[in-house]
Amino acid sequence: MKSAAHRTIFHIDMDAFFASVEQRGHPQYCRKPVIVGAQPGGRGVVSAASYEARAFGIHSAMPINEAYRRCPHGIFIRPRMEVYKKVSDTIIALFSTFSPRVEQISVDEAFLDMTGTERLFGPPLQTARRIAAMIRSEQRLTASIGIAPNKFCAKIASDINKPDGITVCPDDPEAIIAWLAPMPVGKLWGAGKKTVLTLNGMGIQTIGDMQRISLEKMTKRFGTQGAELYYLSRGIDDRPVRADASCKSISREHTFSADSYQPDEWRETLFILTQDVAARARRYRLKGSTVVITWRSPDFTRHTRRKTLRQQTNVARLIFEGACALLNEVHEPALRLLGVGITGCATPVQTDLFAEENGVLRWEASEHAMDAIAERFGRKMIKKGREIRKRLP
Asked: Has domain 175-233 been given CATH number 3.40.50.300?
């Protein structure tokens, strides 16, 4: 990782997106603590919390019952992902009118490469204010924007003045180093909980502490990751904004009502989840190249495994087979949550010869037929036999 030519990168992060969309659609929820996620009494977690709810210490991934304990008078709402996706698509389309290089990171955040757009839209800060104003007027939502010479610093900047804030990172390399120095070392990309504990044990608490460690020492201790942390601590990041569709993913998770000790139940759960993931992929006319499973242990730690498929697919059978292969690598006595998804999604551009030779096209045709029936008569009117034996909320 090395310094690149000067660029202007925006990181735009929608503020409390799910909760804000719910407040927008229900005026009676405005200025009240809104918690989007599982219902209290279950074993799910918080997906998003309004800023009014965050005042009670509620945050995403918190157990829903802990959120209820902290704010029993809060408004608890189940997620409506289809609604959030439609709003997100509209906002991303707005970003695309300012730059052809838009990299959507998730449903509520994106990077924009604004390099060279000054003649069209004016100085970066002026453009950021214009984008924020358009989001506010057209969507009645707010966003926080970071402006920097690279993706890492833009992401850091967007977190500083939330909500509805714009932060400009310095341009000068020495000024960037000084700007990052007081921040906790956990702000560095790739510095997870375990890495932070190791760094703390080395006397590294802040990014400034990291800046005093040599590249040789970091590489010797952490390998390639050490070199990445070394450069990021100095604000050096040459990763481009990728405007392709390869970052798209589709997934679904299920939290068990009680810790599940039964591998057969895990497999049945994966089967139900893959039906939904595959159906959504077909609805968006996408196929994924990688299957991913996610699980939480009873101690709330989250784990993932992924497997590259032989060909892109949106066939539930193939996704399920890949997920089961990954499940065989899970050596846990019990699971609290289980999820499955596909990544590397893109619109297929040609017929897959492997699919033709192995009968996959027949599976695709049968699942498209089920989709057509479900669209006309409702999803409950047609199901696979295995789905009838188990239902998820």
From this structure: no
Q: 145 by DSSP, 3-state: which?
A: strand
In this predicted structure, the answer to whether residue 329 has a pLDDT above a threshold of 60 is yes
What's the pTM?
0.68
Locate 340 and state its tokens. 């499955």
Q: Is 109 a catalytic residue?
A: yes
Q: Is 246 helix (H, G, I), strand (E, B) or coil?
A: coil
Closest CA to 105 of 211, 249, 225: 249
CATH architecture of 17-81: 3-Layer(aba) Sandwich (3.40)
Whether the CA torsion 104, 109, 111, 114 is positive or negative: it is positive
Largest CA distance in the chain: 65
Q: Which of 109, 253, 364, 367 is catalytic?
A: 109
pLDDT at 379 over 80: no
Give the integer Cα–Cα distance in Å for 249 and 344: 6
Q: Which homologous superfamily is 249-389 in?
A: DNA polymerase, Y-family, little finger domain (3.30.1490.100)
Give the sign of the dihedral formed by CA 74, CA 77, CA 79, CA 80. Answer: negative
Q: Are 15 and 164 in contact (CB under 8 A)?
A: yes
> Residue 277 corresponds to which tokens in the numbers above?
């993931």
* pLDDT tens figures, 332-354: 999 999 999 998 776 664 444 34
